[in-house]
Amino acid sequence: EVQVVESGGGLVQPGGSLRLSCAASGFTFSNYWMSWVRQAPGKGLEWVANIKLDGSERYYVDSVKGRFTISRDNAKNSLYLQMNSLRAEDTAVYYCARVGRGIDAFDIWGQGTMVTVFS
Amino acid sequence: SYELIQPRSVSVSPGQTARITCSGDALPKQYAYWYQQRPGQAPVLVIQKDTERPSGIPERFSGSTSGTTVTLTISGVQAEDEADYYCQSPDSSGTYWVFGGGTQLTVL
User: Across the interface, which of A35, A47, A107 has its CB nearest the CB of B45?
Assistant: First the structure.
């Protein structure tokens, strides 16, 4: 079964750090771009970051540039999101998503992991 | 920054046709994609490249495009179609991806 499973969410104070992980299975991970998408409580979806097959290209939404880093380990079929200098507005469910072949969109989604930044 | 604009809500009776629009300046140049998100669940891709239906998506879901507006049409709406629907597309550079604000579809 093709799936991605996130982990690593939790409670953190403003200014703190957190590292999210995403374990992929059922497909050749190294053949796909991967992404993180978030959704604040009661709000819409927001694209956060994309990473190319080999990690050589990475793109971020402006609001997280310089604070978040997307990375991947193809040998471990894993995607990561290192989040530093967290703010209250980063509170959201974070989804790991696979970018479909030949499309600029997400064809496989995880169930998400909740990140809460509180003071 | 680039924006995709959707109506906040659409309401239809069962069996009728629901149309949800999404407007953005780059849509004549970039494909649009549509997702369905039921409460408490992850989104599901229902339309890709403006008009294509991914495998497993019912035929009642269709997409169309005209200039800077794309439209998701759900024909013969069923109770199970009640959900939030989001359009998504890259900006004109293709580098940054954007979601519309989402449309809540209510089946009366």
Answer: A107
pLDDT at residue A119 is higher than 90 = no
Mean pLDDT of B21-35: 97
DSSP string, chain A: --EEEEE--EEE-TT--EEEEEEEESS-GGGS-EEEEEE-TTS-EEEEEEE-TTSS-EEE-GGGTTTEEEEEEGGGTEEEEEE-S--GGG-EEEEEEEEPTTSSSEEEE---EEEEE--
Q: Would you call A45 and B35 a contact, using CB atoms and an 8 Å cutoff? A: yes
Two structure tokens written together for A50: 């994309």
pLDDT per residue as tens digits for the range A20-79 = 999 999 999 999 999 999 999 999 999 999 999 999 999 999 999 999 999 999 999 999
